[in-house]
Structures are given as C-alpha cells and as structure tokens.
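Q: How would the structure tokens look for this protein?
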Amino acid sequence: MKKLKRIIALLLCAATVLAFAACGKTTENGPAGSTTAPADSGGAGGTPSGEAPAAEKKIIRIRDTGMLGSLDPAGDASGMYTSFAMYGLCYLVNFNDLGEMTYEAAESYETNADQTVWTFHLRPEGKWSDGSPVIADDFINTLRNTLTPGSGSAHMTELFVIKGARETQPAEGQEFDPSTLDNLGVKAIDDFTLEFTLNAPCPYFLKLTTVFTFAPSKSGVATRENKTWYTNPDTYLCNGPYYLAEFVQDERYVLKKNQYFYDADKVKIDTIEFIVIPDSMAAAAAYETGELDYASSLLDTSFQQYAGMPDLVGWTVPTTVFLQYNFEKAPAFNDIRVREAVSLAINRQDVCTSLGDGFTPNYNFVAPSMSSNDDTSGKVWVDERPQLFSEDLEKAKQLLADAGYPNGEGFPVYTYVYRNSTSSPDVAVALQAQLKANLGINIELQGVEIGVFYAMRRDADYELLGNSWTAVTMEPITFLEVFMTGGGFASNAHISDATYDELVKKSNIELVPATRNAQMHDADKYLVAEQFYIAPILTQEIFSLRNPKITGVEKTANGSSCFRFADIEG
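A: Here is the predicted structure in token form.
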C-alpha cells in the first residue's frame, strides 16, 4: 500500500514541479537532473543588482501550500504568505522560539514609566531594496492602511491598544472618516524615530509589534489606491534579507538576496523559490525526487516513512481547529443548550485517531502549546488549568431535548463549509458522522478551495465553518482578541458579548504576569466552556521534510522553520 501511495504521489506532482531543479550550488549546467540554470528575474524597479554570478548561486526551493490573501502586511493576514513575511519584511524587533528578543529594523527602544509611550529608534543604515532609506513613515503607512476599511486584515483589532485606533472605525451604518487617522497615536518624531502612544499600559506590546500590521510598507508606494502594488516586484519593495524578484499567481514567487539588508553579510542563500503545491502527497513526492528542498505541512504518512531520518522535522503548532457558527444564518445555535450539546457530544479522541499521527484533542481556544505568560510556572497554556469541559454524551442528549430537539428531531439541516485540503475533509466527515450518530443532527458538507474558504469566512457566507487559528507570535491575546466585538471572527460569526470583551480588556492592561495569565484563562473558559460560542476540536503537530545539507535554519516564535540565514553544505 505504501508503495502504491508513493507511485500515485509521484504522478500527482509531475505536472506541478517537473520544471524545478534540486537544491545546491548552481553550476552553469544547473544542479543534477537539470539542464539549465534558473533565469534571473531581478534587475527591474526595486530589485538590486550586484548579485552573485550564476555559477556560484545557492538556491533553496520550498513548498507553498497556496497563494492566498495578499502580500500586503496591512491586508488579509489570514491568507498572507506568512513565510514571505519572514524573508522580505523586517520588523522593528523579533522573537525566536526561546522567547529571546532581537533588534531588526530598530536598533533600540525605550518606554516611559507606565509603559504607555514606546519609542523606537530605527537603524539609520536600514534601506529598502531599491536603496532608499526605511523611515518611520513607512511603519505608519501600514498601520493607516490596516485601519482603512477594505483592508481585510484579521489583525486590525490588535491595533486597538494604540490611542485613537479604535476610534477610526465607523459605527454600523456610518461612513469612514479618513481624518480620524490623523489622531492615531503613532508619529514620526523624525525620519528614524517612531513613537507609539497607547490607551493604557500594554505588557505584551513588544510581542505585538511582530504581527504583520506592524511591518513597514513603502510610504507613497504601498497605497490603498494601488490595489495590486504587492504583486509587482517593481513596487513591492523589501527591507528584509530578500526581495521579491518574481511573482506568478498560484504558481510561485521568487526571492533573491537583498544587498541593502542591514545584515546582508549573514545571508548565504542567493535565491529562495516558493513553489505552490497544494497536494501534500505531491509535495512529499517532489521532495523525494529532489525537486523540493523543504516540503512543509505533510501528512502523517511522511512521519511513518521518514521516522528516525534526519530529513524529518516536526513541531507542535500553536493552532486550534474548531467548529464555528454563524449565529445569523444558523439561528438554532443562538440557544446555548444547543452549542453545549454539540461540544459535549463530540468525541475528540476519535476524531484525532481517524486522522492519524500528530493530532491531539483540544478543549481550549488558545492553542495548548502556547507559552505561559506567568514567568513562575514554566508551563504551557494547557498545563496551567484543569480541562475546561468534559465530553458527556448523555448530558448532551438531554440538553438538545431541553432545547426542543429530542434525538435531533426538527433540527435544521445546516451546511458545514471546510477547506478542501490537508486534514480538513477528514475532520468534516468525522464531525458529520458523530453529530448524526450521537445527537441525530444532520449536516451537509461543502468542501471549497482555500481562497474561496477565506472569502466565505470573511463575508460571513456560511452556516457552520471548519475554522482554525494559528498564533503569529507566542502571545495568547492574539487568539482571544479575534472574538472581541468587532474582531475578525466575532464579526463574521455575529458575536458581540460585553462580558467577554471586558475580560480581554482587563488582561490587556494588567502588568502582573500571573494575574494577567489568569484573566486570559478566564476569557478562554468563558468563550468555550461557559458560552460555548465555538467548539474547539484539536491541535496538531506539523511534519515537514528538509534537506539535511541545509544548515543554519532558525526557529521562529511559533516553532516553524526560517531559512533567511541558512546555508548549504558541500
């Protein structure tokens, strides 16, 4: 059976990746199995010259699961190519998987006594990939674009800690007033000094600055009027170790070494190609044939095949897969008894077992592997409190009967929308079977392509949704804020709960780590185990394959791999 799967996978990937060569030092005749060296896509507009000769180039080819959302840091961050953000854009500061901070676009910072004013001093040598200086206005540009209606940013609410940010958003039925952006608590003291004024102390503000919306975008170039600026290498300027040299929607994007990067001497790889291969089996096969050097987000079959080999890389992702309701289009779930019945009736271990290795039941919204903010505990999120609720089928049946649907009789048939990729279809089938067998509830399934899924989620065009959320930085609040009133998920689920909002707001200004941690746990419990607004299902471990010749791979704050300072042996 395993041999058959591998043959099928090889056939699937052939059409997608045949043209791409293996990793290594490119010679004039290309790598083994290649007849020509890759074409040079650089040299135009914002692309610097002075690259290494073709004979000396080092290339890494990485799988991308799909080009979603936009490359605009002020845009749809849910679908943004998060990998690109690690290479093309340089934040003020950053954090690794050990929680250690490093300076990037900023060379220093200070804050006032009550932590309401934060001042960052930018590197005077910091430059965009066209050689122009990176200035404070470029950071402000992204923030203003994010707060402008139509940005599609799921991280907009995280800016509300900044004075005046919330006030930029018009009330329902009112029009946006662009002049409100002038009152935003961010200003350029001079070209290289950026000052933030907050509504209240924010103990996690440094971590917050590593979210996409705090990345710079070239002022006067990255505008809301030019809606395709990020698809054009001539206008997509970068201040990170690489710049965008080529962009082919739904196929690939190519990054090349940025000679203007402040730490360019540490960058050893000349070209990174991200190749779109949605199918995991095809990606694994492309790795086996040497056409990929890093195949990410693979199925557990890769774990079984490569167990004990240096190629296999795995980590627990700070992610939660959950069932989300649209309370406007699925009104039966406005009854808390129905929501609780569903959560209590799902056997999460059975769901995980049906999926294979790497999946673990989850009873929180905040990812179980999230690092604690209580410096004294030394634990991760899931270890800090008892399980929030327990599955109880008999209680679930009684709750559903009390709500007027004994054995599911008279319950509306809703449609469950899910991404037609990775493990989502299997989760959908398992939930459909369990709800039918355990509660007598019938749901229909609708699998859609990833881009369609994000659009349906954004536009609240669903009844039930197989959703997920992954931390972009190791800070629990990045989960909790999306269900605050006006948050990315609260809006498209039609949730507005003042009690929940207050729990999250309290944790935003609490400076004692243990107290703040307890407040965030209270908010998590209220969301999933008191109001049952969503039904968390599982978390997972990601398996990837990486060429063992690649060295110097860093780990990001959420545990994933970053190749910006990598090298290739031999």
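Residues 513-530 form the longest helix (18 residues).

The chain has three domains: 2-71+234-316+543-568, 88-214, 319-541.

Upvote if useful.
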